[in-house]
Design brief:
UDP-N-acetylmuramoyl-L-alanine:D-glutamate ligase, 41 strands, binds pyridoxal-5'-phosphate, isomerase, 5 domains, Protein-Tyrosine Phosphatase, Chain A, 812 residues, Ala_racemase/Decarboxylase_C
């Protein structure tokens, strides 16, 4: 896009700072992410300020890399002589105004979607339903926030003939800012639930706020009902309903056949692929839009009968030969490719990046140019190897070196050998039609049905929850010891270093070495360093916890031999836990050694609370903190140093935030488990352990189940066998004694003793079949419940989940 510099500057209320700025700006890329590999001389960079990120910190670095146009609210101290700075008072506001400026230069119909549930599904479905007849630009994934909406809007180009954008809000006043950016002509209000309610007084107020998006629509499509009627008397309304025949569009469902009447005339019946209420409601929104747009009935019927489940998350799994696979086998268009490549960069476990890419959804004029720009995008993202699958990609990229081409997924699977892949991160990205899920399973190592799903967004959310309890500037050390509390350390360490935590904590040196080998650059502290691991620790830049004189001397010896200078170390003080650390009596000896050496430097001094989660030991905790403070002061004065001080773990932050000092160490809370029920309510669930029913049988009265005949059947029961047992880490104590799993959302009691690889449940009143999903723990059945029932702690259950259980990481 090309902007007139002056007009643009006026529009966003900025003052231009820079020596000779051009009269026109040629912008190919609008960016708010300093890490994006697309940032170049045609990037317009908005320095946004968030809770934990400040885009202004990266301006000098970006200018170095060639970025020339910056929107800032604070000028850098040193101005780059070729850069142009647009100085504004609020960069987010300027970003939104710039998007509105871009939007205003296009005159195309736009469908705006808001509501609590179903926005993304309705958007994706409409894209599918209307994509044949229109050149659609839509928000990628669920980009519907204060920054996501503008980013989506910047995607609009001359060639598009229809926009479909979703908009989400959580606070009052937000919609006011987003309306001018989207300017929808067709409005869709999806279901309103009471999620994200904090910012609103009542459901009416919430709907009212959402309706701001529709202030100048030609039509508003919503479910028939009294609230919507009373709030929208001034708007052109088109309603739909599954219950009320007064609605403009009335749908009645018999079995899987949905019959539609429009303006009281029966129109058509269609067999629909899913019949749950939420899906049918989302279909009604789509049908209403198509009727309003006067699409032919046949097109509506065919389209609706072919709707598919919308999969929005990108999943990361481990694969053969130390590869990692990112599974994005559900969509293939330019914008979602950009997002997937960003995701690949953030989550790559090995340096080598590979992509397997199908034909892409194309709706412009010059298809060859389009594929060449895709290739350019892949190259600028440093993708080492490119595999293209499909007729179009094969045709247009035929002569490009380094691109391997296959006409079909079958051909790819036949010709490729697994030996060609090792130590690389493979992005598998294709549209649904290509069935790339087959490629994903081709690469998979463990193919058990049992998986531990790890929601990376929730970890991010939980981290921010604890950060919100801290003062600005308090550092965070994230504990990823014990394989990330059982969840998987590599992926989580990647995420956390991306979130700018100051340190990662591992238990043993080899855990740290593994992180380093896969490219984690963050500072890593080894909490239980073993003396024979010191040389390796120094080689891999891992910082030891020093807890005794003997250990310190041993470390100094190794470090001296390697001529280390001021190697960072962390001193552990004993304050009441009696595990390890220096007691008060040992401090003088410690000082005597440290005072005369340059080989190491004390980075931080810390201690650990034994009972921060136990209110009954509050006094004891305060005594620990007092002793710690006294001893840190003593050491710091004697050594004339000012180290980072830290003592709080997760529960410490929750219960003793005023003692956060310079840093806190968060462990279990990141993984969604709080030691206090109120605390836990505010966290998001991270891990879900699930599997599938392998067999169902009827068992007669008086028969017994499992080893030792520990369970006797009374009356006839339906028993389901589930392929997970104590060797997978399910505590045996959870069996036959009140323990249960969830099948289709219902409790199924575990009957009989839990076996090594299997367990049996009573599924009599559940209505389930072989192959149905079984939840062992997760959101609906938190590990804390299991831990409490069998008198252990959630830490033990999480870290015991066996490595044979495959971990799947995903992000919305
Ligand atoms: C494991 C550990 C933590 C984290 O504790 P949580 O209760 O999981 O937050 C903090 N500090 C030290 C020294 C630890 O060993």
């Amino acid at each position: 896009m090309i902007f007139n510099t002056d007009i643009f500057s006026q529009y966003i209320d900025s003052e231009i700072v820079g020596v000779n700025f051009p009269a026109e700006l040629t912008i190919n890329n609008v960016s708010v992410d300093s890490r994006s590999l697309l940032n170049d001389e045609h990037t317009l960079f908005f320095a946004l300020v968030g809770k934990n990120h400040n885009g202004h910190h990266y301006i000098a670095e970006l200018a170095q890399k060639g970025v020339r146009y910056f929107v800032v609210d604070q000028l850098p101290i040193v101005l780059h002589k070729e850069a142009v700075y647009f100085k504004v008072s609020d960069t987010l506001l300027a970003f939104q105004k710039a998007a509105a400026f871009h939007r205003a230069s296009f005159d195309l119909p736009v469908i705006g979607i808001t509501g609590s549930r179903g926005k993304t599904v309705v958007k994706e479905w409409l894209n599918f339903l209307l994509g044949q007849d229109y050149k659609v630009i839509k928000s990628p994934k669920s980009y519907n926030s204060q920054t996501g909406v503008p980013l989506s809007i910047f995607g609009i180009k001359e060639s598009h003939s229809l926009g479909i954008f979703e908009v989400g809000i959580s606070l009052r006043g937000e919609m006011q800012r987003l309306q001018p950016i989207v300017q929808p002509s067709i409005g869709i209000l999806t279901a309103i639930t009471d999620e994200h309610n904090e910012g609103f007084i009542s459901i009416e107020e919430k709907i009212q706020e959402k309706l701001v998006l529709f202030s100048s629509v030609d039509v508003l499509i919503a479910e028939e009902g009294p609230i919507i009627r009373s709030l929208t008397s001034d708007k052109p309304l088109m309603t739909w309903s599954l219950y009320n025949t007064d609605a403009t569009v009335y749908g009645s469902l018999t079995g899987d056949v949905l019959s539609i009447a429009y303006a009281e005339q029966p129109l058509f019946s269609v067999q629909i692929p899913f019949t749950d209420v939420i899906s049918v409601k989302n279909m009604m929104s789509c049908i209403s839009v198509m009727l309003y747009m006067q699409m032919p009935i046949e097109a509506i019927v065919t389209g609706i009968s072919q709707l598919y489940p919308v999969e929005l998350r990108l999943q990361v799994t481990s694969a053969i030969n130390n590869c990692t696979v990112i599974d994005d086998a559900y969509s293939a268009d330019f914008q979602s490719l950009v997002i997937a490549l960003d995701f690949l960069e953030k989550h790559k476990i090995s340096k080598k990046k590979t992509i397997i890419l199908s034909d892409l959804f194309f709706n412009g004029d010059n298809e060859e140019e389009y594929y060449l720009s895709v290739l350019q995008l892949l190259k600028s993202n440093n993708v080492t190897r490119i595999y293209g699958v499909g007729e179009c990609i094969s045709r247009f990229l035929a002569d490009c070196p380094g691109v391997f081409l296959y006409e079909t997924t079958d051909e790819f699977l036949q010709k490729i050998s697994l030996d060609e892949f090792a130590e690389e991160t493979i992005l598998v990205k294709g549209s649904r039609a290509f069935r790339f899920d087959r490629i994903v399973s081709f690469f998979e190592t463990k193919t058990h049905e049992t998986v531990l799903e790890v929601n990376l967004n929730s970890i991010q959310y939980n981290l921010n929850f604890y950060r919100s309890k801290l003062k600005v500037g308090t550092k965070v050390m994230a504990m990823v010891k014990a394989f990330g509390y059982g969840s998987g350390s590599l992926e989580i360490a990647k995420l956390l270093s991306h979130e700018n935590v100051s340190y990662l904590g591992v238990a043993f040196a080899d855990e740290g070495i593994e992180l380093r080998k896969s490219g984690v650059k963050a500072n890593i502290i080894v909490m239980n360093p073993e003396i024979n691991a010191f040389p390796a620790m120094i080689a891999y830049d891992l910082e030891p916890e020093i807890y005794s004189i003997r250990e310190l001397k041993a470390f100094l010896k190794v470090a001296r031999a390697r001529t280390c200078y001021k190697y960072p170390v962390h001193i552990k003080l004993e304050t009441g836990m009696h595990r390890h650390g220096f007691t008060t009596a040992e401090l003088d000896e410690l000082i005597a050694i440290l005072r005369f050496t340059n080989v190491v430097e004390v980075q931080s001094i810390f201690s650990h609370l034994s009972s921060s989660d136990m209110p009954e030991y509050r006094e004891f905790t305060l005594d620990q903190i007092e002793l710690f403070t006294k001893n840190v002061n003593y050491l710091s004065e004697a050594l004339n140093i000012n180290p980072i001080r830290h003592i709080l773990n997760t529960s410490g932050i929750y219960n003793f935030a005023s003692f956060q000092m310079d840093m806190v160490r968060i462990g279990i809370g990141l993984y969604g488990v709080g030691n206090d029920p109120l605390e836990m309510e505010q966290l998001r669930n991270v891990t879900t352990l699930k599997t599938r029913i392998m067999q169902i049988k009827e068992v007669e009265n008086n028969e017994s189940i499992g080893y030792g005949r520990r369970y006797r059947v009374e009356g006839s029961r339906i028993v389901a066998t589930v392929p997970i047992g104590y060797a997978d880490g399910i505590p045996r104590a959870w069996g036959n004694n009140g323990g249960y799993v969830l099948i289709n959302g219902k409790k199924a009691p575990i009957v009989g003793a839990i076996c090594m690889d299997m367990l049996m449940v009573d599924a009599t009143n559940i209505g389930c079949k072989e192959g149905d999903e079984v939840i062992i723990f997760g959101e609906q059945l938190p590990v804390t419940i299991i831990a409490e029932a069998i008198q252990t702690i959630p830490y033990e259950i999480l870290t015991n989940i066996s490595q044979r259980v495959k971990r799947i990481f995903y992000q919305d």
